[in-house]
Amino acid sequence: MTVTDKWAGPVANSSSPCGHNLTNWEQSIEKMYTYFYLLVFIPGLLLNATALWVLCRHIRKNTKAVIFMINLALADLVHILSLPLRIYYYFTHVWPFGQGVCLFCFYLKYLNMYAAIAFLVCISIQRCVFLLRPFAARQWRRRYDLLISITVWVVVSLGCSPFILMRSSSPSPSSVTQADYNMSFSLEVTSNQQLIGSAHPASPSPHGSGLPTQFSCFKDLPMRRLPVSLAVTMMVFAELLGFVIPFACISYSSFLIVRSLKQGQTCDEHRSSSISRRSRPPSLSIQSDSFRGKQTNAEKQRALKMVLSCSALFLVCFAPYHINFLFYLMVSQGVVSHCATELAVRRFHPLSLCLASLSCCLNPLLYYFLNAEFRLHLSRRASSSVFSSLNSPTQRLSPRRLLSTESNCSDRQWPPSPTED
């Protein structure tokens, strides 16, 4: 028995086992995808292009985590550039660009999500380690960040490759199933790769075979059959590496920074109390130690804000998608048979996909609000642009024209005053 065998029959008519017709819901989800990607494309393109430009041109390369930020912005920008093709397909229901382009665009979605998760983990761990081990931060070299980034790209690219292997470019009844609402979930259970789609059945072919046409793409792509054991194994493996372990790393980094910050505040309180008990003023060495302690605590607070922001971004964008997988798996295998729960899980799935795509617009805000050097260069460029627009060449006087104007004013004959009459 395969994952897709279970849902043959009623599902092909867009009806759930509870007897509910999902056609209207699937059509509304399709519109939601179209409008959502339209809203995300323009701000996502502007924000990520600006962030990538500032990070590459104006931020010092020895700034903490700047290499990881550049890679994160690059992953978001690549996905943003593929959104017009998705918008075109959801709006016209036609894919004229070929199966290769379709598979590549679909693959970029997964690559963006898991690369973003990996680089958020790298940013959090690096900030934590550099605070707890200052000597390691001094000995750290930029090439280490480059090697880590290359490793992340290679591992994530290979980890997302099952998406291509599980999609069939030539639909045939012996190897694929109908790319409908429930069948799209069976792919996500097996590979944890489907980050977009899975909302409604594919349009039937003109020959009446019930299979997707050759123009289908994204959520309507035909899928290969997989055994249940292999599907569950791949799903659990992807959940651990894509959600559980990254979230544990970010949470533990936050805990270590909070504990170190509390310990530093306790030491400062003891130091200030000991100084206040003395009758003579503190020495210069004690004052320098106090200043150094305050500076360290300020650095820890900035690092804590960075790690907590990564945690919040992870929880808002990626946690709903991965948590829903667990319930989706139980629904597909018949473990959860309650009708209301089953419908709620299926209807929440497209919303979780949209939240995952929202990270492309939220990541640039992470660079702006948590990196003072980023804000400084961006504000400088904005102010210089405004100043240059106010002093455009059409409004400025050249030095030669200014001198000629002054000479004309000096040679001008003024009318005599009334006293000279």
TrEMBL record:
Gene3D superfamilies the record matches: Rhodopsin 7-helix transmembrane proteins
GO biological processes: phospholipase C-activating G protein-coupled receptor signaling pathway; positive regulation of Rho protein signal transduction
Main location: membrane
PROSITE patterns, per the entry: G_PROTEIN_RECEP_F1_2
Residue segments, region Disordered: 269-294, 398-421
Membrane-spanning intervals of the chain: 35-56, 68-91, 111-132, 144-165, 228-252, 306-330, 350-370
Location of the G-protein coupled receptors family 1 profile domain: 47-367
PANTHER family: G-PROTEIN COUPLED RECEPTOR, PURINERGIC RECEPTOR P2Y, G-PROTEIN COUPLED 10B
Protein name: Putative P2Y purinoceptor 10
